[in-house]
From TrEMBL, chain A:
Domain of life (superkingdom): Eukaryota
Protein family (similarity comment): Belongs to the calcineurin regulatory subunit family. CHP subfamily.
Keyword Cell wall biogenesis/degradation: no
The name this protein goes by in its record: Calcineurin B homologous protein 2 isoform X2
Pfam family, one: EF-hand_7
Alphabetical keyword list: Calcium, Cell membrane, Cytoplasm, Lipoprotein, Membrane, Metal-binding, Myristate, Nucleus, Phosphoprotein, Protein transport, Repeat, Transport
Claim: Calcium is one of the keywords in the record: yes
EF-hand domain span: 111-146, 152-187
Primary location: membrane
Subcellular location field: Cell membrane; Cytoplasm; Nucleus
TrEMBL record, chain B:
Domain Cation/H+ exchanger transmembrane per the UniProt entry, residue ranges: 8-389
Similarity comment text for this entry: Belongs to the monovalent cation:proton antiporter 1 (CPA1) transporter (TC 2.A.36) family.
Regions that span the bilayer: 6-29, 41-57, 69-91, 103-124, 136-157, 178-202, 222-244, 264-285, 297-319, 331-351, 363-383
Ranges annotated as biased composition (Basic residues): 594-606
Full protein name: Sodium/hydrogen exchanger
Keyword presence, Cell membrane: yes
UniProt xrefs under NCBIfam families: b_cpa1 (TIGR00840)
Keyword Membrane: yes
Keyword terms, alphabetized: Antiport, Cell membrane, Endosome, Ion transport, Membrane, Sodium, Sodium transport, Transmembrane, Transmembrane helix, Transport
Length: 196, 830
């Protein structure tokens, strides 16, 4: 996992990354090591294959989609700032984030909306800003497995879309998506403690 | 009264009631008659409460907070015990405790160990009424359950030290004490898990003996308790783990009825035990011969347990918050400190002390009683206002939605994936691992195949939502139902489990239950509509499961009474349905759904003579059908059920219905209304055919099909659709519970309804009914022709053109089900 002796200063653009993501120095260092370890042939960037080699991701039903979300806009290379930027969404929300934040600044990456947006784009494959019934069905098919029949899946998908759909267009927009989860503590559910 | 119970926790009232009762008994009998016996308490009163809490423990929440719970349970209890004991000893050294309390450091430590443990019964009783947020509740409550191991060990170790005498205690004994902590707690948990495994495995094979399922749950859980108790392990931990571990698999395996039985029996037993415990606590306290008062000891103990509890919580929380994603804030800590209630466990333990070894026992008893009463009454009374005043986050009850369930799963997967990417094997990683292991091996091993197939959480939520919607619809008496209301999210509710595939089967004809209802709604009005809608919902949403689940119980244990009553209900429903469809038929609407299975009709003549006689006291009336709208004959066919039982799951049929429907051509309007009087149902409304029904002949019929999915309906499914039916029914079966063979009760026809002795196959009326179509008693021969002799050939011939006609008018051809034919033949031979 890279040498322990390496210093945060060796990370390129460390300050701007820190400002953007809010990660602590230690977390950035840890992520940098991880990045380097994943980049096993030292290309300086990660490709899809690098991430696909993580064994546990292969058995994650959403693994491929999550890997894809590391590569926005069909790019093939993932550099360290991009890597960190994706992971920054899972940084726990602490009080500083909400308290003395300049309202003019863009929303921090780990805000509730950004966390939700990450989840949303896993559903919204065609990037049209809506989860259609078909997209919902695809996700369900991934997650539910074979024990539920196709018809049952369809009726679940129907109902799920119906439940969240408020404007009656037969699809779930991002706002509707966020609304359906408004009772859930997203800040807590979509955070990983070690990513301080 | 309402005000009293909302202000005062039940446990307080019970203790006070116990005090009064005890006082009366004492005044009358001059001596205390009853008291809380430790043996009774530990053997009979405690297990149901612990089992209840373990079984219904929200496992996800529990494991999410396991770290905090374990810390508070182990470290916190040890801390409380030692500091309280030591402080009391210090108090004695300082001379604040009267010298007549003869106790050394070890005695005080022993006392500290029994008084320090937070009591699950008291916590549960008070916190259930306070409704703090789940995290806070699970931490306090989980602590109170898990600290049992620590308490037991501490108590036993200290007790043995006291018995040995402090001089004889050597270093190895302390080591043994520490080791026994691990043995007792881990051993208790292991015993619980072993029994959980056994229990899950056993319930996998109870398909044919549904009635013993609840018994098994209680028996094995209690066995876990006794085993752990015998081996001097932590019995509470064993039962908790047993309940926690087995629930997922047991719930999947046992039938719906058993699930309800387990749930309510468990809750009832637990609350009974809780009531008795608090009452006995009150009663026992009156017996002044048992205790001796020392103000210094009592006040000191009260102060110390409160102080050290608070201090311990603050210290531990500070450490824990370094590792917690969501730190516990100050308000949480206040509630946690204040919620450390002591209860009956402490009391039972102190009663168990040996007076010869511990001379200060009486003082300890008095102190314990005061502490228990103080915590339960004073703290129990004040914790609710405190929680309100501090604005502690309350638990929010919101109904599960499919979106939440689905997205929550998504989040879990995302977090596990992100942990993988980050390369940190944290909680999510291990949970993911465990779930995969569970899915691959444990569930395969412990769940019956059908249950495993259907046991998906998302699916489960979907199913529960459906049930809930159906129930709430019915509860609201159909008032919320309008044609628009039905298309709201609740709409799929009627397409529950089996129906999804059924409706799918019928999709080519393009109609659903709601469509049908809407159609009816738009035309009918007022009460008629409400009644009809409610009726539909009852049939589709409520009645069916109940009926079906009934079938899953062993026939030997269901009273004929209940069966008959239920069958009567079904009969009435069918009657009404027939009437409705009949009315529609008059308007040249064909009903694919009401086509009978021929095999029943054919078989019946041969083997059902006794049944027929029993059912029909009347002479054969071949012409009767001309007067009747519908003739429904339910026949008991036990023999057949037995023979079929091994075959498929769908054979949980309750009875066989023979439907004969007169042709509308023969009947005039007046006759129809006349026939309506025949029907026993008290509120049958002759439905008027709707516009849509008139124009779209398939509409109402298909809609009915989707609505009235019950095993009953299988009887009237067209031959060529029975494949689909069988599939859907068996899929429903696997969800509900595999059926047992069951003796169908005989539904007697109400005296006024006309009965034909001759079994009659109900017939779908073609849309263009021919005037010549008489309804012969021999319609059944259409089916019987498979197996019976040519005795009925003329009638058969009479029928055949009709059948043929029907087949190509509105039944999709080519899907005749050979399976049913086989069954039919078998039935015929019987």
């Amino acid at each position: 996992m890279g040498s322990r002796s390496s210093h945060a200063a060796r990370i390129p653009d460390v300050d701007s990354i820190r400002r953007e993501t809010g990660f602590s120095q230690a977390s950035l260092l840890r992520l940098y090591h991880r990045f380097r370890a994943l980049d096993w042939n030292e290309k300086g960037y990660l490709s899809r294959v690098d991430l696909q080699q993580i064994g546990a991701l292969a058995v994650n039903p959403l693994g491929d989609r999550i890997i894809d979300s590391f590569f926005p806009d069909g790019s093939l290379h993932l550099d360290f700032p991009g890597f960190v930027r994706v992971l920054a969404r899972f940084r726990p929300v602490d009080d500083e984030d909400n308290g003395n934040r300049d309202p003019k600044e863009p929303e921090p990456l780990n805000s509730r909306m950004n966390k939700l947006r990450f989840a949303f784009q896993l559903y919204d494959l065609d990037r049209d800003g809506k989860i259609s019934r078909q997209e919902m069905l695809q996700v369900l098919r991934l997650m539910v497995g074979v024990q539920v029949t196709e018809e049952q899946l369809e009726s679940i998908a129907d109902r799920t879309v119906q439940e969240a759909d408020e404007d009656g267009d037969g699809a779930v927009s991002f706002l509707e998506f966020a609304k359906s989860l408004e009772k859930m503590n997203i800040e807590q559910k979509m955070s990983i403690r070690i990513l301080k | 009264m309402e005000k009293v119970t909302s202000l005062v926790p039940e446990s307080c009232l019970l203790i006070l009631l116990g005090l009064v009762l005890g006082g009366i008994v004492l005044a009358v009998a001059k001596k205390a008659e009853y008291q809380l016996e430790p043996g009774t308490f530990f053997l009979f009163l405690l297990p149901p409460i612990v089992l209840d809490s373990g079984y219904f423990m929200p496992s996800r929440l529990f494991f999410d907070n396991l770290g905090a719970i374990l810390t508070y349970a182990v470290v916190g209890t040890l801390w409380n015990a030692f500091t309280t004991g030591a402080a009391l000893w210090g108090l004695q050294q300082a001379g604040l405790v009267a010298p007549r309390v003869q106790a050394g450091l070890l005695d005080f430590l022993l006392f500290g160990s029994l008084i320090s443990a937070v009591d699950p019964v008291a916590v549960l009783a008070v916190f259930e009424e306070v409704h703090v947020n789940e995290t806070l509740f699970i931490i306090v409550f989980g602590e109170s359950l898990l600290n049992d191991a620590v308490t037991v060990v501490l108590y036993k170790v200290c007790n043995s030290f006291v018995e040995m005498g402090s001089a004889n205690v050597q270093a190895t004994d302390y080591l043994k004490g520490v080791a026994s902590l691990f043995v007792v707690s881990l051993g208790g948990a292991a015993v619980g898990l072993v029994f959980a495994f056994l229990l899950a495995l056993t319930t996998r094979f109870t398909k044919r003996v549904r009635i013993i399922e609840p018994l098994l749950v209680f028996l094995l859980a209690y066995a876990a308790y006794l085993t752990a108790e015998m081996a001097s392990l932590s019995a509470i931990l064993a039962v908790t783990m047993c309940g926690l571990g087995c629930k997922k698999y047991v719930e999947a395996n046992i039938s719906h009825k058993s699930r309800t039985a387990v749930k309510y029996t468990m809750k009832t037993l637990a609350s009974c035990a809780e009531t008795i415990i608090f009452m006995l606590l009150g009663i026992s306290a009156v017996d002044s011969s048992k205790w001796a008062w020392d103000s210094g000891l009592v006040l000191g103990t009260l102060f110390f347990i409160l102080f050290f509890r608070a201090l311990g919580v603050v210290l531990q929380t500070w450490v824990l918050n370094q590792f917690r994603l969501v730190p516990l804030d100050k308000i949480d800590q206040v509630v946690m400190s204040y919620g450390g209630l002591r209860g009956a466990v402490a009391f039972a333990l102190v009663i168990l002390l040996d007076r010869t070894k511990i001379p200060a026992k009486d003082y300890f008893v008095a102190t314990t009683i005061v502490v228990v009463f103080f915590t339960v009454i004073v703290q129990g009374l004040t914790i609710k206002p405190l929680v309100k005043w501090l604005k502690v986050k309350r638990s929010e009850h919101h109904k599960p939605t499919l979106n939440q369930e689905l997205h929550e799963h998504t989040f879990d997967h995302i977090l596990a994936a992100v942990e993988d990417v980050v390369g940190h094997h944290g909680y999510h990683y291990w949970r993911d691992r465990w779930e995969q292991f569970d899915k691959k091996y444990l569930s395969q091993l412990l769940m019956r195949r059908s249950a495993y197939r259907i046991r998906d959480q998302i699916w489960d939520v979907y199913y529960r939502l459906n049930i809930r919607d159906a129930i709430s619809f019915v509860d609201q008496g159909g008032h919320v139902l309008s044609s628009t209301g039905l298309t709201l999210p609740s709409m799929p509710s009627r397409n529950s489990v089996a129906e999804t595939s059924v409706t799918n089967l019928l999709r080519e004809s393009g109609s659903g239950a709601c469509l049908d209802l809407q159609v009816i709604d738009t035309v009918r009005s007022g009460r008629d509509r409400e009644d009809a809608v409610m009726h539909h919902l009852l049939c589709g949403g409520l009645y069916k499961p109940r009926y079906r689940y009934k079938a899953s119980c062993s026939r030997h244990f269901i009273s004929e009474d209940a069966q008959e009553r239920q069958d009567k209900e079904v009969f009435q429903q069918n009657m009404k349905r027939r009437l409705e469809s009949f009315k529609s038929t008059k308007h040249n609407i064909c009903f694919t759904k009401s086509k009978p299975r021929p095999r029943k009709a054919g078989r019946k003549k041969k083997d059902g003579m006794a049944n027929t006689e029993a059912t029909n006291g009347k002479p054969p009336r071949d012409l009767g059908f001309q007067d009747t709208a519908a003739v429904i004959l339910t026949v008991e066919s036990e023999e057949e059920e037995d023979s079929d039982s091994s075959e498929t799951e769908k054979e949980d049929d309750e009875g066989i219905i023979f439907v004969a429907r007169a042709t509308s051509e023969v009947l005039q309007e007046g006759k129809v209304s006349g026939s309506l009087e025949v029907c026993p149902s008290p509120r049958i409304i002759p439905p008027s055919p709707t516009c849509a029904e008139k124009e779209l002949p398939w509409k109402s019929g298909q809609g009915d099909l989707a609505v009235y999915v019950s095993s009953e309906t299988t009887k009237i499914v067209p031959v060529d659709m029975q494949t689909g039916w069988n599939q859907s029914i068996s899929s429903l079966e696997s969800l509900a519970s595999p059926p047992c063979t069951q003796a169908p009760a005989m539904t007697r026809l109400p005296p006024r309804s006309l009965v034909t002795e001759e079994p009659q196959a109900p017939l779908n009326l073609p849309s263009d009914l021919r005037p010549s179509f008489a309804f012969p008693p021999s319609l059944a021969k259409a089916g019987r022709s498979h197996s019976e002799s040519s005795a009925d050939i003329p009638q058969q011939q009479e029928l055949q053109p009709l059948m043929g006609h029907e087949d190509h008018t509105h039944l999709s051809p080519g899907t005749a089900n050979s399976h049913w034919c086989i069954q039919f033949n078998r039935g015929g031979r019987l």
